[in-house]
Amino acid sequence: QVCAQLCRRPCYCPWVPPRCPRGSPLVLDGCGCCKICARRLGEPCDFLHVCDQSQGLICDYSTAPAGTGATCNFEDDEEGCEVNGRVYRDGEVFQPSCKIQCRCSDGGFNCIPLCQEDVRLPTPDCPYPRRVEIPGKCCPEWICEAQDQHLLRDARPVSPLLPFPCQEWGTEWSACSATCGVGFATRVSNQNRYCRLETQRRLCMVRACPAPPAAFPVSE
């Protein structure tokens, strides 16, 4: 009955299919006529605007108040998380970058660094260790710097206008490791006492995490 009311025959579709946002594939609408962008987790849906079934999403009417539309949700209330436009199942392990590995858990995700954060102390065979970014490699590595280069750098005059005795060089701060709540961002910079390239971290928060939904509706 719904199909007969909403679906027209023959189909009339645009010549050019729509351009979908990242993580939203082209699928047939509920009438099986025209290609549309599949709705993603948490987006509104109905009979025509279908959810992305490849991600295990269904149009969930159970949480919609009377008279309002439904939203895309996991079947059987399965928890998942969305990162950079892609939906991951609960328990799925993924890598947003080569430096961190994350695991989807209860609608959020936890990440651990894949690069070792060890500290190399000076030794007789390597008196001036320095950690640098190596082209073609993901994680920074320690190198042994020559003593004459170390002495020349330390001998530079300190300008009263500069907080450190060298010209600033560094990468941009990376994206926050968490899409909500407190995470961390990293960069490589030489702004330290010895002007050595090192990986620096700082706390970051894109937005606060939403409160978990109530298990049972509150009756008045």
From TrEMBL:
One of its GO terms (molecular function) is integrin binding. The keyword Secreted applies. It is found in: Secreted. Residues 79-145 form the VWFC domain. It holds the Pfam family TSP1_CCN. GO terms for biological process: cell adhesion; positive regulation of cell differentiation; signal transduction. InterPro entries: CCN, Growth_fac_rcpt_cys_sf, IGFBP-like, Insulin_GF-bd_Cys-rich_CS, TSP1_CCN, TSP1_rpt, TSP1_rpt_sf, VWF_dom. GO terms for cellular component: extracellular matrix; extracellular space; nucleus. May play an important role in modulating bone turnover. Promotes the adhesion of osteoblast cells and inhibits the binding of fibrinogen to integrin receptors. In addition, inhibits osteocalcin production. PANTHER family: CCN FAMILY MEMBER 5 (PTHR11348:SF22), CONNECTIVE TISSUE GROWTH FACTOR-RELATED (PTHR11348). This is CCN family member 5. The lineage of its organism: Eukaryota, Metazoa, Chordata, Craniata, Vertebrata. The gene is Wisp2.
